[in-house]
Amino acid sequence: MLRSILTPSRPSQSVLRTTLRSNIPLHLSRSFSSSVSVMSNQTQKLKPAARVQGQKKDVWSMINEAAASSPIQPIVNLGQGFFGYNPPDFILNAAKEALDRVECNQYAPAKGRPRLRKALADAYSPLWGRQLDPETEIIITTGANEGMLSAFMAFIEPGDEVIVFEPFFDQYISNIQMPGGKVVYVPLHPPETGATKNSSAADWTIDFDELEKAFTPRTKMIVINTPHNPVGKVFHKDELQKIADLAVKHQTIILSDEVYDRLFYVPFTRIANLSPEVEKLTLTVGSAGKNFYATGWRVGRS
């Protein structure tokens, strides 16, 4: 009976349902409808949450897939900040020694191992000009990206706005959108002569009138990245001061992405060092993977 109903043509769904119902006994029809309803509800339960629907494929996946499928020649991936050589020997040797220690193979405290947090406090306190407290000011994360996602998840409510300078590290966008944040883009402007002569990353500039207009009552956070990915710009102290002044004026959290804080050739200013008032608004994220050429180890700090 069903075979003769479904062939040779394809009736509309409404006609098909009517035909099926007319040819199925009433008690079976009710059972059939109930089963379809249950299946529909189960399918709805299996759908991804709205916060992750509509996410676009990231640029890394695109490049890696293109490289893998290229039949002609290898494609060089210039999009990711990984190295073509091993970490220093002292890093590799320390990792090998750690594998033989019982405590290094078991659960660590959620904030990270105390010894590591203390080492970071000792290393960065001179750069901050004061003693950092490893118990209250430093946590270890699974890469700097998790540190940034954790910051967004902790502070961003649906509808909150986050200012991002473009171009940008593409993971910012999905991380901001995950908790319901809205990205507000402010461009870094390339030098006008960039197309006709060689220029420096330092020649990229911020239009501060443009930046100030980006602040609204919904602005919750501003993301800065210095040294900058992908441009390479190291923000000047006066630029950071103007950004900090706006953040203080609008009581906006500063998320300072400093994963390249050991890879620079010009004076490097940390925005948190500008004043105690600015420091209270600043969350700083760093990366051991970038510092020690071990990006696959996924060790970050906040």
From TrEMBL:
It comes from Fusarium oxysporum f. sp. conglutinans race 2 54008. The keyword Manganese does not apply. This is Aminotransferase. CDD domains: AAT_like. InterPro entries: Aminotransferase_I/II_large, Kynurenine-oxoglutarate_AT, PyrdxlP-dep_Trfase, PyrdxlP-dep_Trfase_major, PyrdxlP-dep_Trfase_small. Keywords: Aminotransferase, Pyridoxal phosphate, Transferase. Pfam families: Aminotran_1_2 (PF00155). Gene3D superfamilies: Aspartate Aminotransferase, domain 1, Type I PLP-dependent aspartate aminotransferase-like (Major domain). It comes from the Eukaryota. One of its GO terms (cellular component) is mitochondrion. GO terms for molecular function: kynurenine-oxoglutarate transaminase activity; pyridoxal phosphate binding. Belongs to the class-I pyridoxal-phosphate-dependent aminotransferase family.
